[in-house]
Amino acid sequence: MLVKDFITKEIPVLKSFDTGEYALRLMDDFKVNHLPLLADDLFTYHSLISEQEILSAPNSSLSLAELNGADNYSIREDAHLLEALPIMVYRELSILPVVSEQEEYLGSLTRERLIDALAELCQANAAGSIIMLDLLSTDYSLVDIARIVESNHAHILSLLSRTHPKNNHLQLTLKLDLEDASAVIRSFERFNYTVSGYFMKNGVIDDLFRERVNEFIHYINI
Prior knowledge:
Structural class: alpha+beta
Oligomer: single chain
């Protein structure tokens, strides 16, 4: 999942003699808020021009050379997609220019293409189930988690992690290749994992519900 495999060349490039008005028209046509500006040799990447930068200029008819664009966000073609993700998200970029080792402009990575690629990376379309675990970071062991999953004849298709901002607990989201993960859930609970949520097709977790209802009825009758 390297950036070079998801480059698009459909995004137009800007030259130093283009005006802000022209750039704004292109941004509107291609539904983006940024466009790459090339150096005078028309091969080397120079900077990233934003809609906000043009609108903040005293006159949008000025050439882009006069705007003095300072943002030169880019990513190398051999970088992994996960390296592009924080740049685009935290810098709020609609596109990210892709360059070679010699800073030659090769194309752009769009937010839409990045989302599609990440969905593929996470096996979003694969049949299966999703289990969410909540645990202390010191208790995290991928080996132990994988052992529990695989002992129930399932496999982990993808694993996502997030640190909860309030309690610093580690929140894991597992995508499994098993549509009925009831047995996996029971195994996690038996090993004292906190299952904070699960998502499966309707009708495949009846046994789990039935077991918990029976336990509740038994508790009431005591």
